[in-house]
Amino acid sequence: MHGMMMTTPLLITSLIQFAAKFHNDTEVVTCRVDGTLHRSTYGQIYERSQRLANALIELGVKPGDRVATVAWNSDRHLELYYAVSGIGAICHTVNLRLADAEMVYILNHAEDRLVFFDTDMAETVARIQPHTPAVESFISLSDAAGIPAGSPAGALDYEGLIAGVPDQYDWPVFDENAAASMCYTSGTTGNPKGVLYSHRATVLHAMASCFASTLDLRTHDIVLPVVPMFHVNAWGIPYSSPIAGVPIVMPGPKLDGKSLFELMDQEHVTMGLGVPTVWMGLLDHMDKMGRAPKGLARVIVGGAAASESIINRFELKHGVTVHHAWGMTEMSPVGVVNTLKPKFLDLPRDQQMPIKVKQGRAIYGVDMCIVDDDGDELPHDGITSGRLLVKGPWIISEYYKADESALTSDGWFDTGDIATLDADGYMLITDRAKDIIKSGGEWISSVGLENAAVGHPAIKQAAVIGVPHPKWLERPLLVCVSEGDSRPSLSEVREFLAEKVPKLWLPDAIEWVSSLPLGATGKVLKAGLRARFADYSLNK
Ligand code: AMP
User: Fold this and answer.
1) Would you give per-residue pLDDT tens digits along the chain (540 residues)?
2) Closest ligand 1 atom to 330 CA
3) pTM here?
4) Annotated catalytic residue 505
């Protein structure tokens, strides 16, 4: 027997409709690319999303079509999120820090029909235009006068596009499992892979994000996502804040400590979300000012591990509470958030800290376990580490255009992370299954860098490992076997690599060895290299 309840599909449009109806004058404040501050409201965002929906239909965008954004966090980007997904098309957010070749690959793989770009990205998109023939129009996120010189030929302007079109749009109702947005992974083992988020997954993730044990979003909060809208939908904030009635402050491109401090201070931001590197920048400025930005009560640290020192600097020095969190592109992204169970609240700080540095406990909707290499489940004792597997309604089942499931035979997604789980449910990432290098919040593919390095005539073999760095946490060390007698300098190698990989990937140091340690199958043993360079200092 079926229950007798409405079967209203969980569509993304419902999120902004709710906000426009019940939190109409709640603000969305954007620091635009030109540095000006723009104030909008959920009511206005909704109205402009309807205009944009009509404009997209006029441009011939059909359900299922991909529409790309190459843009910072902003009100217009938010309008794109709702208009594109709302008409049944797919909002494909592109990481604007990618190298041209990667961006070209991703746009072609996704078969994007339109590309909306921020004005400071005009030259980048103009360079890739000749290589992305399927893109019909490039649209500058500005008015006509703001289209920068050097934009792609025939670029349109966003404000012109939505001017003079009706501000009412009759949103279609369709299957909640339809794709709504898309984000590519960093492609650490080969090409980047597309993750397609459904309407249902996005709405459920937004609802779960509001829980007190997740982000605890309340109407009195003012949230600033430093995490970009091109990185897993800014951890879902553009969807969760509207239903929590929370104002959003969008930082645009200025993410240095001083700019963030001033924006937070001026707008009385209560909560920020970002990766450790941006928080270190903010902390330096807070130390300089001798205070936290006015109103800042808590920060969520995710994307890379939050160290004890970051937690202490925020909490002890400035009275700002830190919550550690973990997730991934394939998980929409939130998987665990660290909140202390009541029994830990009164512990002395030195006993709390080992718990606080853990990534956190699973939120409702995310099931997890750890297994050994044979797939057998391991105990939750806080000591035994294993491959972390996850399951749930906002977790990937298959990559875009893949011919096989992304899941194990019994339906789990293998995160590629190695973790422990303790009896209280706290998860700690102990390692990565792959040898990825995390520099700030960005990933550096060791394989990608090695492949580029061996293109140098003087480099016979190359291996890349991460070594500690005070600001970026980790930076790449390039370990090489030379082809002949010549050993090019670090700056020569960097110059050679600069045309092939993103700037961020360029190694900070180079070491020459006579041979690389090899494993039984002929693969370089990274663990051996890491042990050899365990005490490596980038300052020597
Ligand atoms: P991405 O898909 O780019 O968001 O990266 C997801 C990966 O980042 C995870 O699989 C982890 O390896 C890593 N990660 C995310 N959050 C944390 C965290 N709090 N601590 C350590 N690693 C993290």
Assistant:
1) 999 999 999 999 999 999 999 999 999 999 999 999 999 999 999 999 999 999 999 999 999 999 999 999 999 999 999 999 999 999 999 999 888 998 999 999 999 999 999 999 999 999 999 999 999 999 999 999 999 999 999 999 999 999 999 999 999 999 999 999 999 986 545 688 999 999 999 999 999 999 999 999 999 999 999 999 999 999 999 999 999 999 999 999 999 999 999 999 999 999 999 988 889 899 999 999 999 999 999 999 998 778 787 899 999 999 999 999 999 999 999 999 999 999 999 999 999 999 998 999 999 999 999 998 899 999 999 988 889 999 999 999 999 999 999 999 999 999 998 889 999 999 998 766 667 788 887 778 776 788 789 889 999 889 999 998 988 889 999 999 998 899 999 999 999 999 888 899 999 999 999 998 875 334 577 778 888 998 898 875
2) 2
3) 0.85
4) no
Whether residue 431 contacts residue 418, with contact meaning beta carbons closer than 8 Å, is answered with yes
Say how far apart CA 511 and CA 530 lie, in whole Å. 13
Given the residues 438, 450, 472, 505, select the one marked as catalytic.
Answer: 438
Which of the following is catalytic: 185, 270, 329, 415?
185
Domains and CATH numbers, the chain: 13-17+37-199 (3.40.50.12780), 436-532 (3.30.300.30)
**Cβ atoms within 10 A of the Cβ of 522, count?**
6
Is 438 annotated as catalytic? yes
Does ligand 1 lie within 6 Å of residue 432's CB atom? yes
Give the DSSP per-residue string, 120-176.
GGHHHHHHHGGG-TT--EEEESS-GGGPPTTPPTT-EEHHHHHTTS-S--------T
Residue found under tokens 């792959």: 434
Task: Determine the Cα–Cα distance for residues 483 and 494; give it in Å rounded to an integer.
Answer: 17
